[in-house]
DNA sequence: CAACCACTCTTTGTATACAGAGACTCTTCG
DNA sequence: CGAAGAGTCTCTGTATACAAAGAGTGGTTG
């Protein structure tokens, strides 16, 4: 997710519409543009430093992504995230990720998953190392997702997964990390990886099912706690 | 699918970009714009009768839909449909429709499905009535899809399903109808409907799985036959 | 004769100017 | 005092003009 463009530093010549899209998308995802925030074309165009034409193209893409909705006569607005929508998103996510795990188990080249297995075995140590360790753990999860995507070899499925992950990124911001949950999630990931290495699609699917079930429970609990108390909560994965 | 806007004749005030989008989308879906066809902005804008600005917006949406891809310095082009991509699409479709069937079985209001059950019982008769009967059968399938969508009550999942159905519409054009397959499909649909009425998510999911398996087999066989002989084949659903 | 370079031409990408639709406000009337 | 209506004003939707990037072509040179 973070590797979108920054991995290689070749953002030298970039279309204005692309710049506007990435900036707005990033700001929505990291919460700088909060749900419900109004997007005025001229205002945003001036802020980003492009004209209205490319900005409109960027907004159109954001609408297609489901991050923005048009309000009838009064501009656009960042979509909001309800608790209901989280459960709904997870219903879609589960369908997609379970299928992806199954296919990955069927088609995988074992090599990258063996590497990932070793890496995930060190996850508990990583999670003892504070924020940098947590960050490196999240990088590991990204790598796992990438490995699954590559093994699945299905542009339609991978595309749908990407769309889901876009919304997930916003949800993760609603709640803080819970070290206990992260440790448990690492174990669940290991189970998925092992199933993929073993070439066992049924097991991979079920392990993914369980993982997402726990993940959703954790997210919902974190949000409940977050809205009850002020701001000391938990997140999934 | 056909009911998008034409059902009620209120296409009086329509934005130019929306007109361009619907026209291009329709022409791609019904094959008038064949895979590989080049889309030049000025050319298409003049043909449709809008300026380049709304046309670009329309093309952007088509790209998001996966119906069009940009070629670096040489305009845009309608995406093509390979046999591989059909199987890939069905892998995604299966994940989504199985999940949708399960959720529909869990949440359904039985009433519309009881009506659909009666209607599908008459499907064999319908399929004896030639093209108009076949057409009415396809309308039935649309109504079933709509009923499932409504029962699922999940915008994310339904949205993903819509995207898949867009591509399916193109695939259906690749092969002719096979009356035998249609009759069998009607039986499979009945099974799905019964499972939803019974509120049995597991059964609904499995019935959907089987239906899509058969559907894919039929489509692939139809395309094989169609490319072997000249043009007398079969299609699914 | 082939390969490379420069030029032109096509086509996209961007900016800006204009028009129209909808919302808000202020006023007026009941 | 409230509600309705007209006017204004803001913001989107569209068109067009301009700029720049890439591809194709022709010529020239080794």
In short:
In chain A, 70% of the residues lie in helices and 3% in strands. By secondary structure, chain A is mainly α. In chain A, strand 2 and strand 3 form a beta hairpin.
Question: What topology emerges from the helices and strands here?
Answer:
The structure is a homodimer of 237-residue chains.
Chain A: H1 16-29, E1 38-39, H2 41-48, H3 52-65, E2 68-70, E3 76-78, H4 83-107, H5 110-121, H6 123-127, H7 130-152, H8 155-172, H9 179-198, H10 201-228
Antiparallel strand pairs in A: 1-3, 2-3
Chain A binds a DNA duplex (30 and 30 nucleotides) through residues 13, 15-17, 40-42, 50-54, 56-57, 70, 72-75.
Descriptive report:
Mean pLDDT of chain A is 89; it is low at 1-11. Chain A folds into 2 domains: 16-78, Orthogonal Bundle (Arc Repressor Mutant, subunit A), CATH 1.10.10; 83-228, GntR ligand-binding domain-like (Four Helix Bundle (Hemerythrin (Met), subunit A)). The first copy, chain A, is globular. In chain A, strands 1-3-2 form a 3-stranded antiparallel β-sheet. The first copy, chain A, is built from 10 helices and 3 strands; from the N terminus they run αβααββααααααα. In chain A, α5 (110-121) packs antiparallel against α9 (179-198). Chain A has 237 residues and is mainly α. Chain A binds a DNA duplex (30 and 30 nucleotides) through α3.
